[in-house]
Design a protein that fits this description.
Order of helices and strands: HHHH
Helix content: over 70%
Shape: elongated
Low-confidence stretches: none
Radius of gyration: 16 Å
Number of helices: 4
Mean pLDDT: 94
Structural class: mainly alpha
Number of domains: 1
Distance between the termini: 12 Å
Length: about 70
């Protein structure tokens, strides 16, 4: 059961990778709504870098979950 759960979460993370720019835009909107303009400006000024960062993080977490799902020790 745990194996399927880990694989499902990993698959969800892998599906979210192409949507990273939209996720960063949503984060910018939320930060503007909270009146945290300095954080929103930081994300806007370095948009491509943040998108790359989130894609790498999503991929690494998915890879770790896949490795944990197929761990032979359990």
């Amino acid at each position: 059961m745990l194996t399927w759960l880990l694989l499902a979460i990993a698959l969800l993370l892998l599906v979210l990778i192409p949507f990273a720019p939209n996720l960063v835009r949503i984060r910018i909107r939320i930060l503007r709504w909270l009146h945290w303009n300095w954080a929103a400006n930081l994300l806007e000024n370095h948009f491509r870098g943040w998108v790359l960062f989130f894609r790498i993080v999503l991929f690494v977490i998915a890879a770790v979950l896949i490795l944990a799902a197929f761990d032979p020790s359990h």
